[in-house]
Amino acid sequence: MPANRRSAQGVAVLLVAAAVLTGCERGASTGGAPSPTRTATAGCPAALARAEAAVRQAERTDPGRGVPASGPRAVPGKSLVFVAQTMTNPGVAGVAQGLREAAKATGWNVRVIDGQGTPAGIQAAFSEAIALRPSGIVIAGFDPLLTSPQVARATAEHIPLIGWHAVAAPGPSEDPELFTNVTTEVEDVARISADWVIAHSHGDAGVVVFTDASIPFARNKSDLIKKELATCAGARILAEENIPLSDTSSRTPQEVSALLSRFPEEWTHSVAINDVYFADAAPALRAARRKGAAAPFNIGAGDGDPSAFQRINSGQFQAATVPEALSEQGWQIVDEFNRAFSGEPPSGYVAPVHIATAANSGGLTTWDPPGYRETYRKVWGG
């Protein structure tokens, strides 16, 4: 099974509870009659200029803003347990690899326990982690509400918890109690993906947005994307396709075929809350004899797993992604634990957003910013 499919399926299993709690309608799409024919007069000069500047900054391979250059020296003799949503999720696996690499620089021990993508598996993995009595536990890629008893027990036993994509926002969390949560800002990711559409289209686009409205985080991201697109009058939203992540493989091809029939010329760009939609859109676009490097031009607003980079680098129905710096985030988790062990507050660092395209990826299948390894080693005294 392709990595991107396993990732989406693993995430979807864990988010069924969110769908039940929110009561969102599964799979409803919006969009009225086809928009008027695109014209050269459409546009938004001010929004376009701002979007182009933001995109130029985000496409830099040297972000210009690195990880914190000061902090406590490494506390010796610590151990971490990384509780993974599922190690078949490329994002989770990438962070785990970065964590292991960083732990070698501090001399710490790391153990990874795979939750195997199910609530029962994650709860069992978390319980096993606590039984090991580590110095700290990483909540990697799942909602801590799914493991409330384990979170409460770890807190009672004074085991620091750090999340990766565990809650919606970066930084400390009181409920659930996390020393910090490592992730990019969803507002930044949403804004830059919409800005890329505005800039790439020169302010004249017919856009389809792919989301999963059963997940509050994903629905918020797509709402933010639409809000940013609305700053440009020439970026018209043709439709919003509500396809649950668990249904992308079965639903996306037929929805894409329907969109091609409704908007044969108007549909120029797409934004999705996860790259997996474009893996599943590709067969329908190919069947319609669309060229991989032609319209609709697609950008994923999040993740940036290896399969997304492969599609981008080969010009196959995805033009860009807003990837997480997975290895860097693994190093950041170690640095945050070191601050917790030293009695210091979290760093407050949030990685800047990046846009990966075939022009700046260097043929690689991950986003790995320069300089952070050397900076952290210096901070830790290595």
UniProtKB/TrEMBL annotation:
Residues 81-343 form the Periplasmic binding protein domain. Gene3D superfamilies: 3.40.50.2300. Transmembrane segments: none annotated. Pfam families: Peripla_BP_4 (PF13407). The keyword Signal applies. The keyword Lipid metabolism does not apply. Its main location: other. It comes from the Bacteria. InterPro entries: Peripla_BP_I, SBP_2_dom. Keywords: Signal. It is found in: Cell envelope. One of its GO terms (molecular function) is carbohydrate binding. One of its GO terms (cellular component) is cell envelope. Belongs to the bacterial solute-binding protein 2 family. This is Substrate-binding domain-containing protein. It comes from Streptomyces triculaminicus.
